[in-house]
Write a structure and sequence with these properties.
Order of helices and strands: EHEHHEEEEEHEHEEEE
CATH class: Alpha Beta
Radius of gyration: 16 Å
Number of strands: 12
CATH topology: Nitrilase/N-carbamoyl-D-aminoacid amidohydrolase
Strand content: 25-35%
Structural class: alpha/beta
Largest sheet: 6 strands, mixed
CATH superfamily: Carbon-nitrogen hydrolase
Length: 240
């Protein structure tokens, strides 16, 4: 199974542009990957919310939205599955979620269980976290998703003998990454799974540097450079 970790630029509150980036990646990866993974809240941009529910509900998308229907169609057209972070709307609730779409259908939808995705001192009961973790099966492999702070707050809830995919959005300096933070993330992933893939999107924040990485037993196996739009394609079985 070949998995593409896509660290492309996204724009806050510009779903049309971010959708074009998803399609671009699918076009470029056609025939090269089975699954493409994007970072946390890539669809709308991590800083797309203002914490006013009446405004934010218009930015969020539901699983039944036209946006999701378009993503479903693309998975059929390009024959590639997608794992995309997004701000989800269900009824009057908003979540930081991650959807998996394959062969024109939603295979899995995970809602972040840690509250660090929001300005929780400013939000009300409309802004929620999920309470369920678990694996989904793709190409006969068990895969689990953790979103950003989930793996720091409750790594025991993500323990799996399968593959862990870890979409994040964080702002550290490149120096901080290289001098210790990246290794800390690799070691943290090993508390949950022997094999983990981490992807961070790029955006216009000067403190954001993107990146994509594969970890095995707490060590860094593969990576792409910071501050570059790039895709890391990992053959999962090579680490088994």
């Amino acid at each position: 199974m070949k998995i593409g970790l896509v660290s492309y630029r996204c724009e806050n509150r510009n779903v049309a542009f971010n959708m074009s980036q998803i399609e671009r990646a699918m076009q470029e990866a056609a025939g090269k990957a089975d699954l493409l993974c994007f970072g946390e809240a890539f669809l709308q941009g991590f800083d797309s919310l203002c914490w006013d529910y009446e405004i934010d509900k218009e930015m969020a998308v539901s699983l039944e939205s036209e946006t999701m229907e378009q993503l479903k169609q693309w998975t059929v057209r390009y024959r590639i599955a997608l794992l995309v972070g997004y701000i989800e709307k269900e009824a009057d609730r908003l979540y930081s979620s991650c959807v998996v779409i394959a062969d024109g259908a939603i295979l899995h939808n995970y809602r972040r269980i840690s509250k660090g995705w929001k300005e929780y001192s400013r939000t009300d009961d409309h802004y929620r976290e999920g309470d369920v973790t678990g694996t989904f099966c793709f190409h006969d492999q068990d895969i689990m998703i953790a979103l950003c702070g989930d793996l720091w707050e409750a790594p025991e809830r993500f323990r799996t003998d399968g593959l862990l995919i870890w979409p994040i959005y964080v702002n550290y300096t490149v120096e901080d990454w290289e001098q210790g933070y990246l290794q800390e993330y690799a070691e943290q992933s090993a508390l949950a799974a022997p094999d983990a893939l981490m992807v961070d999107p790029l955006d216009d924040d000067p403190e954001n540097h993107g990146g994509a990485f594969s970890f095995h037993d707490g060590t860094i196996q593969q990576r792409i450079p910071f501050d570059q739009e790039a895709m890391l394609i990992v053959e999962y079985k090579e680490y088994l």
